[in-house]
Amino acid sequence: MSTPASDTTSLADPIRRSGLWRQLKRYPLVPLTILMLVLIIPAIFADLIAPYDPYQSHLRNRLAPPVFWGGSWEFILGTDRLGRDILSRIMHGARYALAISLVGIFLGAILGTFLGLLAGYRCGWTDIIVMRLVDISFALPSVLLALALAAVYGPSFQAVILVVVFVLWASFARQVRAETLSLRERDFVARARVVGCGHTRILFRHILPNVVNTVVVMATLQIGVVVLLEATLSFLGIGIPRPTPAWGLLVADGRQLVVSAWWISFFPGMAILFTVLSINLLGDWLRDRLDPKLRQV
User: Fold this and answer.
1) Class of the 97-266 domain?
2) Residues 126, 278 contacting (CB under 8 angstroms)
3) Would you list the domain boundaries of the chain?
4) Does residue 155 register a pLDDT over 90?
5) How far apart (Å, rounded) are the C-alpha atoms in residues 36 and 25?
6) Strand pairing partners for 85?
7) Is 178 a residue whose pLDDT tops 80?
């Protein structure tokens, strides 16, 4: 009995999608180009390439549509309710997304890697205490912590960094601890003990280099998580304060005008989408290249 065409198509779609994903991971130039155009270049050169100041209002052109929707080339992606250029605000918003990602992931990776090494190498009470802290970190919602920090200090860049570090360090600690438990039983560690190496030297000279690849891949994949987290907190009003052009705030500014002025929320949302997608593709490609088992497969 023949299979209906619609059923065949529906069955083939996941295969095609997975095949496309594998092709994109195999050739990282495409996601890297998207990431450069959407996040990195605008973040670094926003002051030079942005058409307008992100805070400058053009009240005569408020709620101007994009150029392909009947607007003019003066405002390529349109303007918001205050007449501020959407393209300029997206470019400057990339700077905050990149800064929060780099600082938050750097601090979270250092803290999590250090605690993970200690827990996996020393075991005993050190391992128990660190793992209970990891459980607490996973149990507490990040939005609740952000609300508490916003109530005490108000929405700020520093509060977002603290939330990012709180969310990320536990993942690094758990993964590094699991690899350290395996590495500490290897022959090269036993030989280091025999020749008289101290615990600090064994940790940072013999074990740490073997977990760096994992930390790098995790850090790359976490950039997308941080971008989404920052956008979520800013959207809820507990992240980056107004009138800073953070991507989450740009999406929030247009939520009440999504029918009449859809471009206010649409283009910042697409910037978030392309950034997270590109980061995930690059992270998967990097994992395939750094993991010997996946490289052999």
Assistant:
1) mainly alpha
2) no
3) 97-266
4) no
5) 16
6) 79
7) yes
pLDDT tens per residue, range 4-44: 444 434 434 454 455 555 655 566 677 778 888 888 888 89
CA 198 to chain centre: 37
What CA–CA distances, in Å, run from 238 to 64, 69, 262?
29, 33, 24
pTM of the complete model: 0.82
**Could you tell me how far CA 193 lies from the centroid of its own chain?**
39
Q: How many CB atoms lie within 10 A of CB 19?
A: 11
159 Cβ contact list (under 8 Å, min separation 6): 146, 149, 150, 153, 238, 239
For tokens 């916003």, the residue is 150
Distances (CA, A) of 11 to 8, 19, 22, 210, 271: 5, 13, 18, 41, 31
Phi, then psi, of 221 in degrees rounded to 5 = -65, -25
β-strand partners of 79: 85
Nearest-angstrom CA–CA distance, 48 and 187: 55
List Cα–Cα distances, 279 to 63, 159, 227, 275, in angstroms. Answer: 32, 24, 10, 6
User: How far, in Å, CA of 137 to CA of 131, rounded?
Assistant: 10
pLDDT at 204 over 80: yes
Q: Is the distance from CB of 275 to CB of 35 less than 8 angstroms?
A: yes
The answer for residues whose C-beta is within 8 angstroms of residue 169's C-beta and 6 or more apart is 107, 108, 109, 111, 112, 115, 137
Any alpha helices (H) in the chain, and if so which ranges? 5-26, 29-35, 41-49, 86-122, 124-139, 142-153, 157-183, 187-194, 199-201, 208-235, 247-253, 263-290, 292-296
What are the tokens at 286?
């990097």
Per the prediction, the chain carries an average pLDDT of 83
**Residue 2: pLDDT over 50:** no
